[in-house]
Write a structure and sequence with these properties.
five-stranded antiparallel sheet; alpha/beta; 44% helix; Rossmann fold
């Protein structure tokens, strides 16, 4: 019998895929990859659903550490914010999920990998590209996309096969992961309205946030967060702690409007307290320790890097080239950032580092400067603006010539 490995969330679409694949003569293996979005109750529910559907075997895989080590670290070090606001809360998860599903497919000797993406969103592209790149020998089966089936038809099909799935009508689709929670539906289907505060799972309304706010100090080593208020934490606990703390102060809500992989405009709201706090703190530390041109070129490549991550191009060799540059830039990004979380705001109060380019032992700035004389400064200013002066004179002469002819 042919074997198929299904990326399994336990929802309606992936539940539909199990009996559908069995009808097509496949032995179905289900794989669920936890990238930071499941509660204990949800884990139990997913495992029970796989059991009810009688898959050959259900693999529940912890992908949180791989997600952090391989991707989240670079999102922080690169200060990735798509559209200047969005820390890619959903897309990077699919990379790790696809890798894990492919690994199981190869382990069990499957001939096909199955995912429940529709034909409308970004995830179909992310999964397809990953599978074609890492395991081109595997067939890709996408029942929901290929059939163009409605939710009502899925419910009916499952009922016909003896599987009862709760029929719920949801106004919003919510995807929770380590980097944050994305929310779509109703108001996000146009560009004007904003969903009510009630749709955000954890971040409270700023009107209800503590009046005084709270100060914290984040310690970085070579671009990565290591301690909060002097206390070391592992990566997963670090993100969870900051998410909870930020949510308490109304920090982390955002809205992103941008281009989908398929070329249309899309809009989501999101909450990502930990990611936004870390990126803002890290960026401020970089301002202190990197040179002007390090910052400039790193920003250029970081923008490209974020696009590659979001748009399913993680496996292009250029991504590793960019990561090498990012790693190189972080050799001096060590120090502490003092932040205040207050009524939805992330306020950087101070920053310090042993590699500071503002250290008085390196340079002084103000009315008196020890690095050059006034005469040297005047000479620099004269030469520095020379091309602009010459261009102005040339234009004036050219205009005079044109007016005479």
């Amino acid at each position: 019998m042919k074997k198929a490995v299904l990326a399994f969330s336990g929802g309606l679409d992936t539940s539909f895929c199990v009996p559908y694949l069995k009808e097509k003569g496949y032995e179905v293996y289900a794989v669920t990859v936890d990238t930071g979005g499941f509660s204990n109750a949800e884990v139990k529910k997913i495992k029970n659903r796989a059991k009810e559907l009688k898959v050959k075997k259900h693999y529940f895989i912890d992908g949180k550490h791989d997600l952090f080590n391989k991707i989240v670290t670079y999102i922080i070090k690169a200060n990735v914010l798509r559209g200047g606001v969005y820390p890619l809360s959903a897309g990077p998860e699919r990379i790790i999920q696809a890798i894990k599903v492919i690994n199981i497919a190869q382990k069990v000797g499957a001939t096909a990998v199955v995912h429940g993406s529709t034909g409308a969103g970004n995830d179909q592209v992310r999964f397809d590209v990953a599978i074609k790149t890492l395991a081109p020998e595997l067939e890709i089966i996408t029942p929901i996309r290929d059939l163009g089936i409605t939710r009502e038809e899925e419910f009916a099909f499952l009922g016909k096969h003896g599987f009862k799935v709760e029929q719920t009508s949801k106004s919003y689709s919510i995807n929770k992961g380590m980097l944050g929670t994305t929310i779509g539906g109703k108001e996000t289907k146009d560009s004007w309205e904003l969903p009510p505060d009630g749709v955000f799972p954890t971040v409270i309304d700023i009107d209800n946030a503590p009046k005084g706010g709270e100060e914290i100090v984040i310690s970085f080593d070579k671009g990565l967060p290591m301690k909060i208020n002097g206390k070391a934490m592992n990566s997963i606990k670090f993100m969870a702690y900051l998410d909870k703390l930020g949510a308490k102060h109304g920090v982390g809500k955002g809205m992103h409007l941008g281009n989908t992989i398929l070329g249309i405009k899309g809009r989501i709201v999101f909450e990502a307290p930990a990611a936004l706090i870390l990126i803002k703190a890290h960026k401020e530390l970089e301002k202190l320790v990197l040179t002007k041109w390090q910052s400039f070129w790193k920003d250029v490549l970081s923008e490209a890097y974020g696009n590659f991550l979001h748009e399913g191009q993680y496996f292009d060799p250029v991504v590793k080239d960019i990561e090498t540059m990012i790693d190189s830039s972080q050799s001096v990004v060590s120090g502490e950032v003092k932040i205040k979380l207050h009524k939805g705001n992330i306020i950087v109060i101070g920053v310090k580092s042993p590699y500071s380019l503002m250290d008085k032992k390196v340079a002084t700035y103000g009315e008196q400067n020890l690095l050059w004389t006034g005469q040297e400064a005047a000479g620099f200013s004269k030469i520095y603006g020379l091309q602009g002066v010459l261009a102005g004179k040339a234009k004036k002469l050219g205009d005079q010539y044109e007016s005479k002819t």
